[in-house]
Every structure is written in structure tokens, then in C-alpha cells.
Amino acid sequence: MDLKKILPILFLFLSFNFYAQNENFKDKKEQIRAMKVAFFTTELDLTSSEAEKFWPIYNTFDDRQFELRHQKMKNYFKRMQGDNLDKLSEKEASAILDQIQDNEEDLYNLRKKFMTNLKDVLPSIKILKLKKAEEDFNRKLLQQYKDKGSNK
Q1: Rounded to whole angstroms, how far apart are CA atoms 16 and 28?
Q2: Which residues contact residue 31 at a Cβ distance below 8 angstroms, ignoring those fewer than 6 apart?
Q3: Which of 17, 79, 97, 114 could make an S-S bridge to 61, C-beta 3.0–4.6 Å?
Q4: Quick one: pLDDT at residue 126?
């Protein structure tokens, strides 16, 4: 069979596969977001006025945090896979460390700004409840993931 005929078919197959994985990831992310909304709503006992102000602030924060954690860090860790780490020069390694540190600082500043914005919307006790709810939700999600993995 001619390679020129196989390549477009292979490319089409890989494109569908990538699209399906990307859609599956988006679906999972939306499922998690829906679970988080339900969990936080119960835990925080937000009034309708508080919820109206809280969710846009939280969703913006959550999206930005996801971007910082996953998108940027994914690039760094890709460069450190397998024996790539051993092939890095000291200068390249130092540059990656600087980028990671900058990313961590961006995350810290994002969280700090988020807390400041929340103080205009929620009483301090509910902000503390949010912090606890985030930790509880993450633990619950991790436990579900572990349980699902052990059932296979």
C-alpha cells in the first residue's frame, strides 16, 4: 500500500482519537465542577445573594488556578520525563527551576487576590469554611479515584 494513502488515514484516526480524549477530559472536568458546586453549596450554606457574587469570583479563580497548575506545569514536567532530565544542562535546569518558582509565586498571588476579593462578598467564617470544603472535596475526590482504581 502506498504511504501517501496511509498517512492521511492515520492522521485522521489520530485526530479523532485526540479529539475524543480532549472531549473526555472536558466532560470529566465539567463533572468535577458540578460535584464541587453541589458540595460547596451544601458546606458553605450560601445565601442567594452570596452565591450570586461568590460563584463568578470562584469560577474565575478556579479556571486561572487550573491553567497555572496544569498547563504551565505540564510543559515543565514534559521536559523532565525519562532520561531528558539527565540531558539538561545546568543552565537549562536553572531556567526550569526559575519558571517553576515563578509559577508557584503566581499561584500564591492568585490565591491572595482571591481571598481579598472574597472578603468583599463573604464573611470570614464562610471563607474559612470554603478552605475546609476545598480540602474535604479534594480528599473525597482522591478517595473516589482510589476506590475506582482498586475495583478494576
Answers
A1: 18
A2: none
A3: 114
A4: 96
Q: How far is residue 111's CA from residue 40's CA, in Å, rounded to a whole number?
A: 18
pLDDT digits (tens, 9 = 90+) for 49-105: 999 999 999 999 999 998 888 877 777 777 666 667 778 888 988 888 888 888 889
State how far the Cα of 70 lies from the Cα of 32, in Å rounded to an integer: 15
> What are the CA-CA distances from residue 149 to residues 28, 70, 142 (Å)?
16, 22, 10
Separation of alpha carbons 57 and 101, rounded Å: 25
Residues listed for the chain: 152
Per residue in 98-133, pLDDT (tens digit) is 888 888 899 999 999 999 999 999 999 999 999 999
- Tell whether the torsion through CA atoms of 30, 38, 144 and 139 is positive or negative: positive
C-alpha grid cell, residue 23: 472531549
